From TrEMBL:
Keywords: Disulfide bond, Repeat, Secreted, Signal. InterPro entries: Compl_asym_regulator (IPR052065), TSP1_rpt (IPR000884), TSP1_rpt_sf (IPR036383). This is Coadhesin-like. Its main location: secreted. It is found in: Secreted. It comes from Littorina saxatilis. It holds the Pfam family TSP_1.
């Protein structure tokens, strides 16, 4: 019976002291033992008491185990563009299982990180103006009397140039600055005004090209000479002769001389009649330039006796004929 109890006690101790994993861990602990010391009158007695000391104890323990690495987490990129850097993290914990009863903690780090590039796209570069470049001055607007001249300054959007969608420079690439120049007083030479008509004579003819006299005057006031300027040279009066009424004068028509046409005699002997026709034309001169035509008729007729001296022939009498050339009757 005693053997059975002893065996049961050993099994119980094995279950309590040693876990199912079979891992025990030692640790420092306070232990007590029974000790004796002198006590009583004159120390002749002997008293017992518990004495503590540090010793080694054993208990069930478990070493820690790492969990799986978590998914990646990232730190903020050092730049928003133009290639910066960030850390890529993974974490794990020593909870798979957690160390227990003085078991060993997990070996290694609970965090691992990798440095990697980020935001590698080019940064927008906004344009900026270069310094002004000064050009030479322009020509003065006047040679005297106070004018202006202009200086043109230029700059370019190249410090730097806008790139990768950056903004262009704001404002103008040039500016104008005006300066006074040639402020000395101008010498003003006199100048003639326009000619103005003073008087105008009548035309010498009403038609057929006459002439007309006109008088003009001008003054040295355009401009008036100033500051030692020269006076106008030349005459201030002018007389001109111009043609006038150059239209042709009307020419009224006039009759030419009469021309006569003689008709045939109504008889060859013994007093006949013939018609004389007179004609004239309106050509001496012909009417022109709205002149009036000739008045009267251009034709007239008249009768004259003819062959009145030519006797008509009688039987037994000779026959005569008129000779125009000789203007006599001849025996015919």
């Amino acid at each position: 019976m005693a053997n059975v109890l002893l065996l049961s006690l050993v099994v119980l101790l094995a279950v309590v002291v040693f876990p199912a994993s079979g891992l025990t861990c030692s640790y420092s602990c306070t232990k007590y033992s029974w000790a004796y010391k002198s006590c009583g009158t004159w120390g002749w007695g002997r008293c017992g008491y518990h004495k503590s000391y540090t010793g080694t104890c054993y208990r069930t323990c478990r070493n820690g185990g790492w969990t799986a690495w978590t998914t990646y987490s990232y730190s903020t990129c050092t730049k928003t563009c133009g290639t910066g850097y960030r850390n890529r993290y993974q974490r794990r914990s020593c909870t798979n299982p957690s160390p227990y009863g003085g078991g060993k903690s997990c070996y290694g780090g609970s965090t691992q990180s990798v440095r990697e590039s980020c935001n590698t796209h080019s940064c927008k570069v906004n344009g900026a103006w270069s310094s002004w470049s000064y050009s030479s001055y322009g020509t003065c607007s006047v040679t005297c009397g106070g004018g202006t001249r202009t200086r043109t300054d230029r700059r370019t959007c190249s410090n730097p140039y806008p790139r990768y969608g950056g903004r262009a420079c704001y404002g103008n690439s040039y500016k104008y600055t005006k300066y006074s120049c040639n402020t000395k007083v101008c010498i003003i030479h006199g100048g003639w005004s326009s000619w103005s008509s003073v008087s105008s004579g009548a035309c010498s003819r009403s038609c057929g090209s006459g002439y007309q006299t006109r008088k003009y005057r001008r003054t040295c006031t355009n401009p008036v000479p100033k500051n030692g300027g020269r006076v106008c040279s030349g005459d201030n009066a002018l007389t001109t002769v111009t043609a006038c009424n150059t239209q042709n004068c009307p020419i009224n028509g006039g009759w030419s001389c009469w021309t006569t046409t003689t008709g045939s005699c109504s008889k060859t002997c013994g007093r006949g009649v013939r018609v004389l026709t007179d004609k004239r034309t309106c050509t001496n001169p012909a009417p022109q330039y709205k002149g009036t035509a000739c008045s009267g008729s251009s034709t007239r007729t008249r009768n004259e006796i003819c062959n009145n001296l030519v006797p008509c022939g009688v039987k037994g009498y000779p026959r005569y004929r008129w000779s125009r050339a000789r203007r006599v009757y001849i025996l015919g």
